[in-house]
Amino acid sequence: MKPLKVVAVSAGLSQPSSTRLLADRLADAVRRRLAEEREVEVRVVELRDLATDIAKNLVTGFPGPALREAIEAVTEADGLIAVTPIFTASYSGLFKSFFDVIEDDKLIGKPVLIAATGGTARHSLALEHALRPMFVYLRSIVVPTSVYAASEDWGGGGDSRTDGLAVRIDRAAGELADLMVHRSPAAPAADEVVVPFAEQLAALRP
Asked: For this UniProt entry, which segments traverse the membrane (predicted)?
């Protein structure tokens, strides 16, 4: 059997980056979950290295070789991990711009784990009001558990209302691994049929 491909997209800007660290921990957790059943190939795409190519693509409509290769890795992955820093209560512009240059139908049915980092836990809902709706719009399959890591989460054990970061990572990784192993192959897109408006009205008449 072909190895399962896991691609983690990290939109961290600094180096070292807590966003990249979270992407690595999630990818490693998914690899561990899948290791007993399938061989796994993991790749991390660092968007900071592609920022210029992404900007040029937005202007010209054509990706450079490095960006094209990254897009192919994402669209051909069996499972996607998408991690962004949270800026002003939403995903970063670099993160959004990367997914803007991918054709809308390329992520249909793809299992996706969404995650984010930020300085304060107040931004954690950005996962649900920004990232999850974006991937739902792209018709991806987003796992139930999203993972947010605030500064105080690193090395913390959680509190009475939230599990620790390690627990959330493990749960989300398990959900992504299950989807990757058990999902049915996506059906080819059917050609869209345009029904004339007059026919649509006629069908409504008794």
From this structure: none
